[in-house]
Amino acid sequence: MRKRSRQARRYALPYSMGSRVFDGVNCALLLFFALFCVYPVWYTLINAFSDPEILMRKSIVMVPAGFSLENFTHIVEQDNLLRSYINAFVYTAGVVVYSTALTILGAYVLSRRALPGKNLFMFLIWFTMVFGGGLIPTYLVVNRLKLVNTAWAIILPCAVSQYNLIVMRTAMAAVPDTLEDAARIDGAGDIRILTHIVLPCSLPVVATIALFYCVGQWNSYFKEMIYLSKKEMYPLQVILRELLITYTDNTTDAMKMSAAENSNFAPLGFKCAVIFMSLLPMALLYPFIQRFFVKGIMIGAIKG
């Protein structure tokens, strides 16, 4: 072992001063960008858990001022925020289940080599990635179907992402044909082949695609503003947008009254508490899906 290590050091390329400077600059830049990405989350966290009375007197930059859960108690007192939290969970769960199921079925069909006109279908899918119908035709369709102000207006339109469909189709096409042939000889149909062979082999991709749909819907607010006009149906992100930008809805009016009546109310701390609560579900979900993430993307992207 020592002899091998000596030979390795003998034939190793010299680590020049230029390489060291280059690596040092890269590490410094990566550290700067990491801090640039982490600091907004840290700033939100320390303001959410800081004492509102101290927040009213001075701004907090790096270190939290005391510790208090008062900002989170104001969230419980707001009916619209709690209702929007539940709505966000309902919409996200519906989108994840419905969109992932459609993506799996579409990807399985497109991954079959015996499918007639497969290239034409793939071209049409790619074409919709470049040219879309636009917002007005989509809204007219949703309105004519009487889906406005319903949860289906959020779940049904644009259910399948073309990118996710192509990634999952590529992963399913990589499953060996011998497994499918053996299953068909044993009398298995397409449904059994999909559920017992293709899906277990493509589990990392399925988990990754489900995570994409989950994060995309959880952070969505624009289509909810278009299709929903009842405030009791708003998800959390719409309420959060109105909270951070405008002060016109009932929730913010109630906050103004509570701020005037209660000196222990800090608007900045309350906003940061709401933002923290909106980040918390995805932050808790990601560690369970992270082990599938890189593998799922690589499986779906290596083979075209």
Automatic annotation (TrEMBL):
Record field: transmembrane: 21-42, 88-108, 120-140, 152-172, 193-213, 265-289
InterPro entries named among the record's database cross-references: MetI-like (IPR000515), MetI-like_sf (IPR035906)
Gene Ontology cellular component terms for the protein in this record: plasma membrane
Domain ABC transmembrane type-1: 85-286
Intracellular or extracellular location(s): Cell membrane
CDD domains attached to this UniProt entry: TM_PBP2
Keyword entries, A-Z: Cell membrane, Membrane, Transmembrane, Transmembrane helix, Transport
Family: Belongs to the binding-protein-dependent transport system permease family.
Protein name, entry field: Carbohydrate ABC transporter permease
Organism: Candidatus Alectryocaccomicrobium excrementavium
UniProt lineage: Bacteria, Bacillati, Bacillota, Clostridia, Candidatus Alectryocaccomicrobium
